[in-house]
Specification:
The protein has 13 helices and 20 strands. The protein has about 400 residues and is α/β, with parallel strands linked by helices. Strands 4, 5, 8, 9, 10, 11, 12, 13, 15 and 16 form a ten-stranded mixed sheet that branches. Strands 1-2-3 form a three-stranded antiparallel sheet. A three-stranded mixed sheet has the order 7-19-20, with no helix packed on it. The structure holds D-gluconic acid and magnesium ion.
Length: about 400
């Protein structure tokens, strides 16, 4: 099966997505998600200008060889732009192979390992009451796990507080919005949120929280310890994890489970954390970590150290990525939990998906490949709009991690 055409499609049905389309002489078309939120066009250019010309004429079934020729052949390795571009090619090739062999991608990854993929929803509120009401809504819809983020006394807008409905969208057109963050009120407020949540929602539901890289290791240890009575499913990104050894301090002081890695791109970004068992859940996802080929390697390493998979699944990645993540999570042995934020309706007008939610799980269809198709004509109705994620500052104006 030879590649005859490869091109990117940039559209903005609710938010910006970069999609890779690869066509073959067998009349089949494969899709990959190449979206890197806030830096979308850099990946589109990496693909259009440097990668796609190399694919024409290649045998689309040689997934492993193409992966290594793009990774090693670039000389410049790793990094989000490179790995997102390679990931998009890789996923499109798995999609094509499934279509060629008339089987869903999870079958190519080892076959079904579970009934469905358990997901967590995002309950956000500008107040603790609002977040708990939102969580109740998810529980009523059958979710078994919910992430809680809320405004706190003395801190109106920590990370994750959106419109208070099902759709959380932090990116803003043209220029980033500035938000304020202070660790003091945050560290005092989050335990109050979870104390109330357990009192009002009970103990059946799994609760999660995302600290979004904002704490120092000592602060993270303090928060993890303070949250122990409420038995979180995980505390996410407590610290920026570039310095992986800093997690030792956090780990030493708390048994609250830790999830890290949505911004990681390669196995090298995570190998110390995994090897030293400094985390419980690895958040790397298909699109940003070199595709299914590379994500499988990360998951296999993680399995040796009791670390479970927890693919990042925000709405700033397209349904092509979520579809690929669901095939991966259906087949991988050491599955943990899957994030599910729900794309806005416009996104589903462009991306027609075969997956569905039932009993707090997402299920992939048995259609060949990924089971996600892209309507190029409809995509043309949603042109690209430059947009940025927010920037956070301390009260005195110092730039902080968002
Ligand atoms: C999450 C994430 C996202 C990121 C976003 C940045 O856990 O879902 O932290 O909400 O902020 O993907 O692009
Ligand atoms: Mg996160």
């Amino acid at each position: 099966m030879r590649i005859t055409d490869a091109r990117t499609l940039v559209c903005s049905p609710g938010r910006n997505f970069v999609t890779l389309l690869i066509e073959t002489d067998r009349g089949l078309r494969g899709y990959g998600d190449a979206t890197l939120n806030g830096r979308e066009l850099a990946v589109a250019s990496y693909l259009d200008d440097h990668v796609l010309p190399l694919l024409i004429g290649r045998d689309a079934t040689e997934i492993e060889d193409i992966w290594h020729s793009l990774y090693k052949g670039a000389y410049w390795r790793r990094g989000p732009v490179t790995m997102t571009a390679i990931g998009a090619v890789d996923v499109a090739l798995w999609d094509l192979k499934g279509k060629l062999l008339d089987t869903p991608v999870y079958n190519l990854l080892g076959g079904r390992a579970r009934r469905g993929v358990t997901v967590y929803g995002h309950a956000n509120g500008s107040t603790i009451d609002g977040a708990i009401a939102a969580a109740r809504g998810y529980i009523d819809m059958g979710y078994r796990a919910v992430r809680l983020q809320s405004g706190l006394p003395g801190l109106e807008q920590p990370y994750g507080v959106g419109r208070g409905d099902l759709y959380y969208e932090p990116a803003a057109p043209d220029h980033p919005i500035e938000e304020t963050f202070e660790p003091g009120p945050y560290l005092r407020g989050v335990p109050q949120l979870f104390e109330r949540a357990r009192a009002e929602l009970g103990w059946e539901v799994e609760l999660l929280h995302d600290a979004h890289h904002r704490l120092t290791p000592r602060e993270a240890a303090q928060l993890g310890k303070a949250l122990e009575p409420y038995q979180l499913f995980w505390l996410e990104d407590p610290v920026p994890a570039e310095a992986q050894e800093s997690l030792r301090l956090v780990r030493h002081h708390t048994v609250t489970p830790i999830a890290i890695g949505e911004v990681f791109n390669t196995i090298q970004d995570a190998h110390q954390l995994i090897g030293e068992q400094l985390l419980d859940y690895i958040r790397t996802t298909v699109a940003h970590a070199g595709g299914l080929t590379h994500l499988q390697r990360i998951a296999h390493l993680a399995e040796l150290y009791h670390v479970r998979t927890a693919c990042h699944g925000p709405t700033d990645l397209s349904p092509v990525n979520l579809g690929a993540a669901l095939h991966f999570q259906t087949a991988v042995h050491n599955f943990g939990l899957q994030e599910y934020m729900r794309h806005p309706e416009e996104a589903h007008e462009v991306f027609r998906v075969g997956y569905w939610l039932e009993e707090g799980m997402l299920h992939v269809s048995d259609s060949p490949g990924l089971g996600v198709e892209v309507d190029e004509e409809r995509a043309a109705d949603f042109p690209y709009q430059r947009a940025y994620l927010p920037v956070a500052r301390r009260w005195d104006g110092t730039v902080h991690s968002w």
